[in-house]
Every structure is written in C-alpha cells, then in structure tokens.
Write a structure and sequence with these properties.
- This protein is of the alpha+beta class and 212 residues long.
- The protein has 2 domains: 43 residues, GTP Cyclohydrolase I, Chain A, domain 1 (Orthogonal Bundle), CATH 1.10.286.10; 153 residues, GTP Cyclohydrolase I, domain 2.
- 40% of the residues lie in helices and 22% in strands.
- The strands form 2 sheets. Strands 5-2-3-6-7 form a 5-stranded mixed sheet, sandwiched between helices.
- Strand 2 and strand 3 form a beta hairpin.
- Helix 1 packs across helix 2 and helix 7 packs antiparallel against helix 8.
- It comes from Agromyces sp. G08B096.
C-alpha cells in the first residue's frame, strides 16, 4: 500500500484553514500544512505495513527454550506469554482525533514464539491507522492468530479518546476498555486467570469484572 501523499495533505489543510476563516499565509500558520502532513505520515504510517510481517521471525518453541527462553518471553512451562502496559496511540476515524492508552497482550504459544519486541510492533502498526478501538483490539488478536497460530490470545485495550475528553460530553476522566479473546483464552476461567495476572484492581481487572 502506498505511503501518505504529503503534498495532497498540505493542500487539504490549507483549504481547511481557509474554510474556518483563517489566513494560511499568516506567520503562525504558514508551515501548518507541512507540519500536519508530517504528523499524518506518522499517525497513519501503519497503513503501508502488514502487521503480520513483524511475526515472521517466529521460532519453534523448542528452539526458543534451548537458546534462552527468557529472550523470547517463554517460560519453561510453555504457559502464557504476557506483555503488560504497552503504550499506544491511534486516531479515531470518526473525528480524526487521537486516542491514547495501554495495551495488555497475552498468548498461549502453540508451536512458535516470537521475540518480545515483535508484539508491541504489531500493536503500533495497527494503531497507526484510522481506527476504532473495538476494531483495533480485534485486529491485534487476529494478527497474532495469523502470525503465530497460538493456542489462545487475549488483548485488552484501555484508552482515553480526545473526541470524548475535549468535545461533546467532555468527560475528561473517562476511559474505554475493550477485550478480544481467541482460542483457549476465550474460555472464561482461563481468561480470568490471565486478567488477574495482568493486574487485578487495575484497568485490566475492571475489564475482567465487566466482561464476566
């Protein structure tokens, strides 16, 4: 998929400035179209990347354990790999305003595992698109299923939306929690165990209580 068209964004931002009654030539706004184009290239750069590509260097579980399981996040028992408190930011497709939050991701390895840094890369790639939080949660889970074929996946996102905190109802303290589960971690008891591991009493714990 092609990268963002910076020149086209600049022209569009200039039109927006004119439409709200501003002068795009005045000193404070002269470089705004360029700055917005640069920001959008960052915000939406994930459109040009296949998130599953981050998982292509997955290795067999036996190899990971033999070569040093800690480097891949694999406990000797072969139980869940859990990554907590992964910061992410995305842009809501309804108003093109940011939403910012934390992702918690767990999977039960099947035959393959991947380096710990690959999971945040999947989250970041999918977040760098016009998104809905609900869909982002599902897409992260689906990418892990496709790339790793695990026995189970659990993804929890907890985010604040600027379209809620800065406009409309202006609920400055509110956050939204979404959950996606697959395979063995879709089973309530297994899911509850992972949520407790992530942190009972925090956002993830609240999510488990809500989803129970």
């Amino acid at each position: 998929m092609a990268e963002v068209d910076a020149a086209r964004i600049e022209r569009a931002v200039r039109e927006i400035l004119l439409a709200i009654g501003e002068d795009p030539e005045r000193a404070g706004l002269a470089r705004t179209p360029e700055r917005v184009a640069e920001a959008y290239a960052d915000f939406f750069g994930g459109l040009a990347i296949d998130p599953v590509s981050h998982l292509r260097d997955a290795v067999p579980v036996d190899s990971a354990l033999r070569d040093g399981g800690a480097d891949h996040g694999v406990p000797a028992t072969g139980d869940a790999v859990v990554l907590r408190d992964l910061a992410f930011r995305s842009v809501c497709e309804h108003h093109l305003l940011p939403f910012v939050g934390t992702a918690h991701v767990a999977y039960l390895p099947g035959d393959r595992v991947v380096g710990l840094g690959r999971i945040p890369a999947v989250v970041d790639t999918l977040a760098r698109r016009p998104q809905l939080q609900e869909r982002l949660t599902e897409e992260i889970a689906d990418a892990l299923v496709t790339g790793l074929d695990p026995r189970g996946v659990l993804v929890i996102l907890d985010a604040q939306h600027r379209c809620v905190t800065t406009r409309g109802a202006r609920q400055e303290r509110s956050s939204t929690i979404t959950i996606a589960s697959r395979g063995a971690l879709a089973e309530p008891a297994a899911r509850a165990e992972i949520i407790a591991l992530i942190g009972a009493g925090g956002a993830a714990g609240a999510a488990g209580a809500r989803d129970a």
